[in-house]
């Protein structure tokens, strides 16, 4: 009898609600940042969580690492519910679960040297004993991420963005973690540096046998470094599949729109799916039914009224769409959704301003002659 492998990390109906300020005459606004998300992360894989800003992907990542407390639901690590962990157990858990923050300029203490920053986890978790051993381990970690060991005595302000992010990666590796979460680890870097950091993360994953979760808002960053992709929209997962399946045959209209929105390398090539148009609804005022129906060209009355479940459609593939099978049968019918009311208003204001500038720049004729 074969045993089913156990995931290293699992979320079960995970939810997070943020409450805004209230007043005497109004109730506090409630934002459902993550809504009943369930997923599994397997040993040795790289899972990418993608979506637009405000989709809840970063919040989900922090919930998985217990950097935020969930409003509802559970997180399991190696089969154990983290809600039942004591403070001492949670401290030990921090060694296994580490994060690379988005902004390398804000995530490093400017008053600490690189040696103190990278060596802090070694001291907190009693990984090495003695200052000399800690200094040697810091130099080893810096070399591992492609930085000279001599940088250990410098301060964060002396480095570029890419170098600071490498320092953050070295700090995350200091505790010898089993799982590493990258919260948009390259979005704050120059394009020329992004590929270097992505290649470094992929190399470290192979070298140390890491499991990785990468949060990103661009599909191009994760295409060549992830095994599976979870697509999020307004706090929910709308599609979950292998990376090749996501890019070769996206099922959900939102996934299709994200892929179509990526820049094309070949000019003049017609896009096979519609571009994403309109604005994301206010998270404090969620639409009924499918949350994507306000921006979807294929929405029906069922989509507007009934929320689609996240159903398994094939091996290792899930999608939350009422019409996914129908749309797959007829991929030639590409519809372009109408512009949103906000876009139409902005366009009208732009045209009005353009006409005003044109009228001011046109010389007016004068009658008569000067005295």
Core attributes:
single chain; 371 residues; alpha/beta; Rossmann fold; 12 helices; 34% helix
Q: Tell me the span between the first and last alpha carbons.
A: 109 Å
CATH H-level superfamily title of the largest domain: P-loop containing nucleotide triphosphate hydrolases
Low-confidence parts, pLDDT < 50 over ≥5 residues? 332-337, 364-371
Number of domains: 2
CATH class of the largest domain: Alpha Beta
Helical coverage, percent range:
25-40%
User: Biggest β-sheet: count, sense, barrel?
Assistant: 8 strands, mixed
Q: Strands of the biggest beta sheet: in what spatial order? A: 6-7-8-3-9-10-12-11
Task: Note the beta-strand portion.
Answer: 15-25%
Q: Which word captures the global form?
A: globular
CATH architecture label name of the largest domain:
3-Layer(aba) Sandwich
The residue-averaged pLDDT reads: 86
Organism: Rahnella sp. (strain Y9602)
GO molecular function, one term: ATP binding
Pfam families: ABC_tran, oligo_HPY
Keywords: ATP-binding, Nucleotide-binding, Transport
How would you describe the overall organization of this protein?
The protein has 371 residues and is α/β, with parallel strands linked by helices. The chain contains 12 helices and 12 strands. The N and C termini lie far apart (109 Å). It has 2 domains: 9-19 and 30-232, Rossmann fold (3-Layer(aba) Sandwich); 249-263 and 271-347, no CATH class. The model is unreliable at 332-337 and 364-371 (pLDDT under 50). InterPro entries: AAA+_ATPase, ABC_transp_ATP-bind, ABC_transporter-like_ATP-bd, ABC_transporter-like_CS, Oligopep_ABC_C, P-loop_NTPase.
């Amino acid at each position: 009898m074969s045993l089913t492998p156990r995931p290293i990390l699992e979320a079960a109906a995970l939810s997070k609600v943020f409450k805004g300020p209230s007043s005497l005459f109004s109730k506090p606004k409630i934002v459902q940042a993550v809504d009943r998300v369930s997923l599994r992360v397997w040993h040795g894989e790289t899972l990418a969580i993608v979506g637009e800003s405000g989709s809840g992907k970063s919040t989900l990542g922090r919930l998985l690492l217990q950097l935020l407390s969930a409003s509802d639901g559970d997180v399991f690590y190696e089969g154990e519910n983290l809600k039942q962990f004591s403070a001492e157990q949670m401290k030990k858990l921090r060694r296994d679960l580490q994060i690379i923050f988005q902004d390398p300029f804000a995530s490093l203490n400017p008053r600490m040297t690189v040696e103190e920053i990278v060596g802090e986890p070694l001291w907190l978790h009693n990984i090495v004993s003695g200052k000399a051993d800690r200094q040697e381990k810091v130099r080893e970690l810096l070399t591992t991420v492609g930085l000279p060991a001599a940088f250990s005595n410098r301060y964060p302000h002396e480095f570029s963005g890419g170098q600071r992010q490498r320092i953050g990666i070295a700090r995350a590796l200091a505790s010898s973690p089993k799982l590493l979460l990258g919260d948009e680890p390259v979005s704050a870097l120059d394009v020329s540096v992004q590929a270097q950091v992505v290649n470094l993360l992929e190399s470290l994953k192979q070298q140390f046998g890491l499991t990785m979760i990468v949060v990103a808002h661009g599909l191009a960053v994760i295409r060549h470094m992830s095994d599976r992709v979870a697509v999020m929209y307004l706090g929910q997962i709308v599609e979950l599949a292998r990376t090749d399946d996501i890019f070769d045959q996206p099922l959900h209209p939102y996934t299709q729109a994200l892929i179509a929105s990526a820049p094309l390398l070949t000019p003049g090539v017609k896009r096979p799916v519609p571009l994403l148009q309109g604005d994301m609804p206010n998270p404090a005022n969620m639409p009924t039914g499918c949350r994507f129906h306000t921006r979807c060209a294929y929405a029906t009355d069922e989509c507007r009224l009934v929320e689609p479940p996240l159903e398994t459609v094939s091996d290792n593939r899930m999608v939350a769409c009422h019409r996914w099978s129908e749309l797959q049968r007829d991929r030639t019918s590409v519809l372009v959704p109408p512009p949103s009311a906000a876009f139409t208003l902005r366009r009208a204001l732009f045209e009005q301003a353009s006409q005003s500038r044109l009228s001011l720049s046109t010389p007016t004729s004068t009658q008569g002659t000067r005295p």
